[in-house]
Amino acid sequence: MAEDEIVLYHYAYSPYARRIIWYLALRGIPYIQCNQPPVMPRPDVARLGIGYRRIPILAIGRDIYLDTRLQLPKLEKLDTSAPRLGSASAEHRAIERLLSNLMNDAGIFNWAAALLPANLPLLQDPKFQKDREDFTGAKRTPERDARIQPVALREIASVFHFLEGTLLADGREWVLGTPSPGLADIEAVWPLHWLAGLPGALPKDKFSPEVYPRVYAWIDRFEKCVQEAQSKAGKQGRVKGEEASRLIVGSGYHDEEADVDATDFDAVSLGLARGDEVLVGPTDMGSSGKDVGRLVGLSDEEVVYETRGEDGTVRVHAPRHGFRIRRNGGKL
């Protein structure tokens, strides 16, 4: 593997961060943690010149990657002694991508979040409530829960039913029939694992090992494999924000220098060129967190821009899907 240090900004109970933590554990890739508060502000992240507010944030060397939909493919490209978790088959890669789209883009996380028990201590915290209102653009109330939760249960049940009756129907242990959990399992399991582990989130008469035996057995197998991998790897290092920033800025760039595709739709419509100051941010949840940076790369897969923090400049990579680019001063 390249010698670049991997730094993961996250908080422990983020279901999105678990996707990255699981991947790193299952491939045995060491990393350093920079633990973050679950609510804004996050001075450690701001220290890098980044206004993006979602967790996790992944640094490999001096390159910063936003959104797990980009982070996982970047980690897949790392050359280590452990096999990659993604498939070499085009058909299976399509299944991985479709599972990612289903769980990330079809609203499954939002439906799952709507089912969090209202009596969870964190949900009683006024700071957390206000933060999540800003994050989602909606306020949670008993009246809203009564209206939305039956729909959320139906949507989550449809995912359990889909997996039980298709990909896991033949009794296989892992989604693509692999000898151990792969990328497809990570893409599919995370919101279900999250809900299944929260007492009171799912009604037991509708969601249980008796109702969905294959899905619950798969979740349990996955959990055990991750725990074994983490036990084998041992504890990962931890750093504070100042140390993390200096470590990142003091590293070399991990990715080769990108270029701006002059034929890209946004490049043409906005007249963008390398060096332009741009505004970049997500179009769905957490859209209040935006970055201003100098454009250095633009492709079908990602936009790359430089931000300047307290310790120097870094390159930030955001996926094109789910993110919008504008000239600084414009509106996202």
Tell me what the structure shows.
Residues 89-247 form the GST C-terminal domain. This is GST C-terminal domain-containing protein. Pfam families: DUF7962, GST_N_3. The protein has 332 residues and is of the alpha/beta class. 40% of the residues lie in helices and 16% in strands. The protein contains eleven helices and ten strands. The chain has helices spanning 15-27, 43-46, 68-76, 90-105, 108-114, 126-136, 142-165, 183-196, 213-233, 241-249, 265-270, and strands at residues 6-10, 32-35, 57-60, 63-66, 237-238, 277-282, 291-298, 302-308, 313-319, 323-327. Helix 1 (15-27) crosses helix 8 (183-196) and helix 1 (15-27) packs across helix 9 (213-233). The longest helix is centred in the middle third of the chain and has 24 residues, at 142-165. It is globular, with a radius of gyration of 20 Å. The mean pLDDT is 95.
Set down the secondary structure blueprint.
Layout: E1 6-10, H1 15-27, E2 32-35, H2 43-46, E3 57-60, E4 63-66, H3 68-76, H4 90-105, H5 108-114, H6 126-136, H7 142-165, H8 183-196, H9 213-233, E5 237-238, H10 241-249, H11 265-270, E6 277-282, E7 291-298, E8 302-308, E9 313-319, E10 323-327
Parallel strand pairs: 1-2, 2-5, 4-9
Antiparallel strand pairs: 1-3, 3-4, 6-7, 6-10, 7-8, 8-9
